[in-house]
Amino acid sequence: LCNEQTGEPQKGDDGTKDGNSTTDSGMNNSDWTLEYIEVPEPPSDLIEVCSETNTLHVSGKFQCSASCRFSECCYKNSCYYFEFDEHAEIGKNNRKNCKLYTPLCDVIYGKMPPIPEEGDGEGEEYIPSFIVPKPSNNIKEVCDPFDLDPESCREICQAGSCCLEPKESQESCYTGNEITCAQYSPCISIALGEDSGGLDETLSNQPMEPNETEMELVCAPKAIVESQLNAIRCFNLCTLGWCCFSLDNSCFNDDNQEVCEKYSHCKILSGIDYSGDGDDDAVIGVAIRQGGDSNKDAIIPNPPIDIDAICSYANLIDKEKKEKCERVCLPSIESCHSHGNNTDTSRTIAYIDGRGEINQEENEKVCGLYNESCSRLSPLPPPPPDLTNLCSFAKPSECEKACEPAKCCFLSNLESCFGYHEIS
User: Which residue from 274, 281, 322, 359 puts its CA 20 to 30 A from 15's CA?
Assistant: First the structure.
């Protein structure tokens, strides 16, 4: 079965330790426990398949993409493990094999980032002062932002609460525990729901200068959707300006406006559950405007960070998992898209920023987080009538664009992919 957009098989030949299909962040679709990706050695024909001559053609580029798919985590720095258990050896082998995929697979994923080496340059590995225990397997359900149980979520997140502390603080245990801390990312739901409660009091009234470069990288919508590690990193950076987003004690004023505006990337985390009680001017989120005169009838949250896994092609085969994807995508279906000629102009969405102003640009970004994953609920469209002409040798870019909706069908398991989508 086509796994998300990578074409990875569902079982057996996906480069993982046990053959389970995983998401980009290593999350198993069935039980939400972290799986460790093993990067195999590249196929022997990678040089020919990913040659400049072969990848000039659309079919050749698809072939190269299929051969490179097991190296995708190498390009995201998400398959290097330094723990003192069996995964340390996996990380060592991955670092060795990742080097064999570049520069050939750069044509698919871009330039590969520097591959980190073990230790600090003197042969010694970094030993964290505190080893974070792995959370309960049901953390995703307990802290589901669409069905949040605040008390149980707080309890289950307690052991990993230090993961959410700013990295610069003494209370932070993030460094050295990154992989485990990623499993605590559902706790972001309760942290946001409680506003600034539980955070360092020194952050409650004065924002600190952010690291804008890193924030722009890890808080980008695509980065958040692809990796829970990025969500944790983004959260850590954003806590330094948490008062800018506070509902009760906002520090977004004339004195702090310049600094607070630098935290604009943090709005990606703002799936705040707001019922409409109290002062709505400070709400950071997306609200449905009913008839244009209310901004507190409903709040549309950002999609869960693992929406790509929830709505993967493999999951959509299963009735219950498909229904979960439909529930997750409901805000997008109702409010982000026009439905033919039946667009309801009285029901539109509007992004409410820290000053209560409507920001349509931010609104479009939030809707964009749903688009790629939720579009999988729709049948593949029929190919354009001039596909043969578009895919002539002279028009590779136009052909690639025309074939994009059916990309997964070209990578693996054609029978299953075409069996799921009715193509006329």
Answer: 322
